[in-house]
Amino acid sequence: MLGNKSYLHCLQRQQAQERWWQKLDEQGYFEQLPCETVAVEFSLGRITAGSVFARQSVPHYNGAAMDGIALCAHDSFGAQETAPKRLRLLQPGEPFAAGGCYAIDTGDVLPNGTNAVIMIEDVHWADGMAEIIAAAAPWQHVRIIGEDIVAREMVIAEHEVITSADIAALLAAGVEAIEVIQRPKVAIIPTGDEIVASREELQAGKILDINSPMLAAALTSWGATALRRPIVKDERRCIVEAMEAALRESDMVIVIAGTSAGRDDYTADVLSELGEVLVHGVAMKPGKPVILAVCQGKPVIGLPGYPVSAMLTAELFLRDVAQARQKLPLTATSEETVTASLVKPVPSTIGMEEYLRVSVGQVEGKTIAVPVRRGAGLISSLTKAQGIMRIDAADAGVNTSTPLPIRLLRHARPAQHTILAVGSHDLALEILGVYLRRRMPHVSLSCANVGSMGGIMAIRNHEAHIAGIHMLDEATGQYNLPFVQRYVPGFLADLTDPTNPMDLTNPTGQTERTGRLIHLALRQQGLIVPPGNPLGIHSLADLTRPGLTFVNRQRGSGTRMLLDKELGKANIDGCQINGYEKEVATHMAVAASVLSGTADAGLGVQAAAQALGLAFIPIAQEQYDLLLNFSPDDERLQAIIEILHTMEFRREIEALGGYSLCKAGETVQVQ
Amino acid sequence: MLGNKSYLHCLQRQQAQERWWQKLDEQGYFEQLPCETVAVEFSLGRITAGSVFARQSVPHYNGAAMDGIALCAHDSFGAQETAPKRLRLLQPGEPFAAGGCYAIDTGDVLPNGTNAVIMIEDVHWADGMAEIIAAAAPWQHVRIIGEDIVAREMVIAEHEVITSADIAALLAAGVEAIEVIQRPKVAIIPTGDEIVASREELQAGKILDINSPMLAAALTSWGATALRRPIVKDERRCIVEAMEAALRESDMVIVIAGTSAGRDDYTADVLSELGEVLVHGVAMKPGKPVILAVCQGKPVIGLPGYPVSAMLTAELFLRDVAQARQKLPLTATSEETVTASLVKPVPSTIGMEEYLRVSVGQVEGKTIAVPVRRGAGLISSLTKAQGIMRIDAADAGVNTSTPLPIRLLRHARPAQHTILAVGSHDLALEILGVYLRRRMPHVSLSCANVGSMGGIMAIRNHEAHIAGIHMLDEATGQYNLPFVQRYVPGFLADLTDPTNPMDLTNPTGQTERTGRLIHLALRQQGLIVPPGNPLGIHSLADLTRPGLTFVNRQRGSGTRMLLDKELGKANIDGCQINGYEKEVATHMAVAASVLSGTADAGLGVQAAAQALGLAFIPIAQEQYDLLLNFSPDDERLQAIIEILHTMEFRREIEALGGYSLCKAGETVQVQ
């Protein structure tokens, strides 16, 4: 999308990082660190600019560490049970005299002349005298001055991240304000004639600037301060002015380059004029058209306009620099990673490093990664992914046998708790995920939409927990079960077999494959057409009308099979239908095509039509089932079946339109 | 320190956690979650209150994904290199006609009638016509509406932590404001007559409230909002009023109990009156006197007054509750832990769980934990520790052979980068740590002060990288080397042996023990006395004067050995000196004792006297060396030696007073 310009002479990612880091280091960028003074109380997470030394000792006086009596230890020597010693109780303020003692509470100042405390429990009172039956060691139960921290001692070293315990120690040591390293200020300059700042300005051909708020949030989490600048038009003079202003006020500048070929080179030109372009183009995907420059001793990065590219390149090139600038320990190494095998081989371009977004789950003890969609333009590929797998530039792709490390994105949810749903897409599945999470907050459900057949194959290969399927076997007239028995023989537990008890483990205690096929819903499939059905479409035959445009689902999907079967029944050939070759991956994508006018009709579920306010012509009711692959004692299996039986869940799905859940949760019995 | 009251009927920690959690759960505490609306732009890290659905599709129109021409794919069918097709260029706004095309840029709206884009590189211009030599597939290079996100699709599920990519996706999907779970408000009520809020009010017998700011910071990092309340006096009525006000305005209340016996039970009484006390006293150390209660359906926790106890019990009992309240994934499990062996056995009380603060480092491939001081009152034990080792209630202690898991506190600094310095204490060592970190930001130096002999033993047991030592061998008159040769025979590399090359590996490639003894400094030791030396102390003999009080260093320390040797030369017996039995662990602690008037004199280094403005009577100059245990190719070894040779480091140490570093960094040669 950027034209085969100069940046095609791409550097490898690591070379680019090194060139950028080395230049910044040479220029002393990581050394000239502006500081600021903050109240210790509010310094959590900041980085100390220098080592901090105690201004007072802690404790700052000799005090009692127990409730009891303060005495001179010498006076207690010789006391035994058989020969107690008696000490005269002195009044507070009364000068110490040998053989005397004072009543004292924890934290009280040790009176002059005394050097030990005896616990109240070990003191007998008799005739106003304190009777003791054991000698006190000098300084016992006394917190002596400086016992914790001594004045002038180092309390916290330079370039440390301040913790809550540090705050307590600093305040105790008399330090109330502290020099910390200033958060680096990073200016973000969005550019592009087509970019708008608000939804109000959004119209066809315009693009909302979602990169600025996304990068601002990311920078905040990296300890930097983001300075968002106004959108700059595609004029050289404007970009120069914006750059110059940004360089004056910030420690680092991001130019979001937009996506058109001309302008990107333009940004590079401006950066060459204002400083030095070190890297233009990196052999990675997404993120190829990144620019790394240094202007006036400050790093300037040109990020690609697609949000996924912008985010990934910012993480690779900006984060370390922003963190090193404030002496934060680099987090890259301590991030959580898992090792997983891909569900399907993924080809990749040799010479190009690829960052593949994946869902990650554990199926039958094996960690499995399912790629989400790959387009750099798809921000949903980042939000739906749980991790990122790096495919080396030297590789032509990744096969399924090589487990590879994956950097986790939402690291609070470990892979062993993720349920991988691979198969046909349905809104009900996503809502099932919401209900599951309410019961089991650590569990998340991740959907990969590969159609019904893809789902069955994933179950066969031990690579999914759930496959949503809806496929009619024309020979038997039965939905789903025949396909499962054909492609995954022996998978389904025969619950009717009396020798096979409900707990589904055989007498040896060894677990067998114990899959279940469970009803989810009957779904109304039909033609989705514009509101009011202006073209008067009433049957599949109407789709062959000249001038009418159809939108299809992808091969292997249950909906596509339904269409082809219904077309067969009606004796219609797909090539008679204009748009038959245009495939999209979900019901909602079909509805969206109709809503936008790209297509006049498409086959999909009623819920999708209803969601977008479109008209719907019923064609067939189909059975949508869930093929479940859990061990019988997996609590997630039980939770799913329970949820499917609740009225709350059934009503919520039925309200979507075209669903009947009266048999939801029932096992489809093996015939 | 709290008297043997009811709380001695302690629950085990886990029982206490379960009882507390179960009660809160029963009362629906984790369900009634107040929400608030925030701008998506500023929602980073917040938790979604419900699932959020797209309000518009992304992209919101069919647009070109490339610069080029937009055409009807049908018009291109049949185009080949040998039989190019020509398309008439239509003007923008001109209605589409078969055989026509429009010039289009990336992001432009696809004109009506067209359904594909051909890249500009693949178009030849001839006579104002676009000539193409290959057919276009329908919808190629078109970003269709909803390709990324379809309107009404779920963008983010409920109870998810919002990431920067989520912010981008939500904004793209037309969602500008979002319902998130309110941060729980936690009131912090410090109590105690002796507690003061500011340094100005601090005097002997008063204690600064460092718990409130420490806990407020910790709560902030756990996603909660801390409401700091004024310090409450030890009066029942005041505590009741403060509690009632706090319960009105917050979701959770912390009462910091202070340390006196009477008042602690008092707090429990008040909580019993206002609600139900579930737990009073937990078998753990530190932290025993914790109170867990529920008042008006809200959790109320009474924390012990010692900051270490307060912090550890807050982490154990408060953090999970605060995080579950806002549906944050519990972090406890994903925290970084390492497994390490203790340097020395640590005894512990059976029936009492103990949380031991430790330094952690890797020595010769083995992960080693060195306990820091244990007192619950020592906040420095938390700030200097790198991890916490839990000793089970069933254990009488931990021996050195059992590696145990350690929860890391400053998890950005992995154990393999920590240098363990075990031995005699010296300020110069801490400053060496600062210099090291400037060169190697990932490295930190952790000092455990166990005296010179303890340091040699740690090296002998492969449990330290550095031992700071200063011990005079009376027989030879030589410092340090004789002890190393006696107690760690064969450890020091003979650098003068021509068969032993500098790289210190033998020809088989196997690494031998290759220790080094390196000069650090000549230190002036002497008597530290009050400013102006009011008692006119001029020699060790003066210490025997009646009425004069001395403070000593612990046995095994080089300073103690120096004292005993000098006393022997002067024919003085230790028992003639008042205070000879009072031991402290560092030079600074000696100086602090003198500054506070606890002692009239003590033996220590000049730097300590100078730091606290005390007078100093020189007694002897001693040699302080570093025994180093690194493999010869360890870059930290090289860095240490280089730093010791720099003028900058030498000047900084010499400015402390009483140091000479002219030989710093030189190897003490094996004789």
UniProtKB/TrEMBL annotation, chains A, B:
GO cellular component terms given for this protein: cytosol
Involved pathway(s): Cofactor biosynthesis; molybdopterin biosynthesis
UniProt-listed Enzyme Commission number(s): 2.10.1.1
Record domain MoaB/Mog: where: 187-324
Gene3D superfamilies, per the entry: MoaB/Mog-like domain, MoeA, C-terminal, domain IV, Molybdopterin biosynthesis moea protein, domain 2, Molybdopterin biosynthesis moea protein, domain 3, Periplasmic binding protein-like II
GO biological process: Mo-molybdopterin cofactor biosynthetic process
Necessary cofactors: Mg(2+)
Source domain of life: Bacteria
Annotated PROSITE patterns: MOCF_BIOSYNTHESIS_2
Family, per entry: Belongs to the MoeA family.
Full protein name: Molybdopterin molybdenumtransferase
Organism of derivation: Heliophilum fasciatum
